[in-house]
Automatic annotation (TrEMBL):
SMART domains cross-referenced by the UniProt entry: rADc
This protein's UniProt keywords: Cytoplasm, Methyltransferase, RNA-binding, rRNA processing, S-adenosyl-L-methionine, Transferase
Species of provenance: Candidatus Jorgensenbacteria bacterium CG11_big_fil_rev_8_21_14_0_20_38_23
Record-given protein name: Ribosomal RNA small subunit methyltransferase A
Similarity-based family: Belongs to the class I-like SAM-binding methyltransferase superfamily. rRNA adenine N(6)-methyltransferase family.
Molecular function GO terms recorded: RNA binding; rRNA (adenine-N6,N6-)-dimethyltransferase activity
Keyword Nucleotidyltransferase: no
Length: 282
């Protein structure tokens, strides 16, 4: 079952301390842990929760056998369930409370879980995940010009905006707060991991609906090596006889918001993407 669910259990105590600090546990917090496994993080969570007088720790474990074992050795509320199915219910249940999510997330679950969180009407106040390093870097992707100014070309920074980054950064501010070697897990995965902190944000009231925003970024990043102008033109104008006129109009709209038509999608930051979605669909 462990291999089927892609679980790798974190054994590095310093990394666990980093995760706990990042959670900023406070009075009245409710902590939801995804995939607690053997409880490597669960018990330290319970202890810090008791110290800071938070409400409760809810550990959601899909593996029934692991859940039953964990119930015998922790004071956390252990729930045997699929997080993808139960999270919307928990979000609704705790909508009037301050809840946070933490967990060591298997690769196969990452994209699905992030989409579920993105769709929640009542989002957690804070999220701390351990993810595959490459996935974490992609989530934190920024235009190359911003990368240079922020990190002076550090090799740890993802080069360029991408679909995953544009999807997540629409609803949260991501930050990598730690790096974990694959040797710090049992069994050891094939790649290193990162600890990433996601701070959900309230979308500005002037933003266009999420559905249209996500439609735009799917268009732009379907062929990321093509220019922004060509991606939009080929998607929005199907008949060739209208493309010449449409190309001029789209280029004018892009220039009106300081986007060069022949830039590529990776060159845009999240604010430019949001602004572009507004002018295209209004």
């Amino acid at each position: 079952m462990r291999q089927k669910l892609g679980q790798h259990f974190l054994k590095n105590k310093e990394a666990i301390k980093t995760i706990l600090r990042a959670l900023e546990v406070k009075t009245s917090d409710i902590i939801i842990e995804v995939g607690p496994g053997h409880g490597e993080l669960t018990q330290p969570l319970v202890e810090i929760c008791r110290k800071n007088k938070c409400q409760k720790v809810i550990a959601v474990e899909k593996d029934i056998k692991l859940a039953e074992r964990l119930k015998k050795k922790t004071e956390a509320n252990v729930v045997s369930a699929d997080i993808l199915k139960i999270l919307p219910q928990l979000s609704q249940k705790f909508k009037d409370s301050k809840f946070k999510i933490v967990g060591n997330i298997p690769y196969y679950l990452t994209g699905k879980l992030l989409r579920i969180i993105a769709e929640l009407k009542d989002k957690p106040s804070l999220i701390v995940f351990t993810l595959q390093k490459e996935v974490g870097l992609r989530i934190c992707g920024q235009p190359p010009k911003m990368i240079r100014s922020i990190s002076s070309g550090s090799s740890r920074a993802s080069r360029g905006m991408n679909l995953l980054a544009a999807s997540v950064q629409y609803w949260a501010k991501p930050k990598i707060i730690g790096y974990i070697s694959k040797k710090d897990f049992q069994p050891a995965p094939e790649v290193d991991s990162v600890i990433i902190k996601l701070l959900p944000i309230n979308p500005d009231k002037t933003r266009i609906g999420a559905e249209k925003y996500y439609k735009l970024i799917r268009i732009l990043f379907k062929q990321p090596r093509k220019t922004i102008l060509n991606n939009l033109l080929l998607s929005l104008v199907k008949e060739k006889k209208y493309q010449k006129t449409a190309k001029i109009k789209i280029a004018e709209k892009l220039k009106s918001i300081n986007i060069e038509p022949f830039q590529r999608p990776q060159d845009l930051d999240i604010n430019q993407l949001i602004t572009l979605s507004q002018i295209l669909y209004n």
